[in-house]
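Researcher: Next entry in the queue.
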Amino acid sequence: MSQQFNYINLIGLLAAFGTTISFLPQAIKTIRSKDTSAISLPMYILFTAGTVLWLIYGILFKSPPVMIGNFVTLVFASIILGFKLKYK
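Model: Structure for this entry, 88 residues:
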């Protein structure tokens, strides 16, 4: 069972890495250009709130892939949301 658990966590960590790293280009572009005109404010508010809830879920279930992935995603999404609010 231990090998299966490690294998499952590995899949979760790889999935979290893939979906989380996808925010990096947008965050870099937003930071550099300060242009947020193409970003939907309601979408990013809802997305960021959902990421917070997923992070809480991961903490409650002690799931490293969910916690790590959503923590990093929350950082990137918060940067983009912050720039959207500041430069709208």
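Model: The radius of gyration is 15 Å.
Researcher: Noted, moving on.
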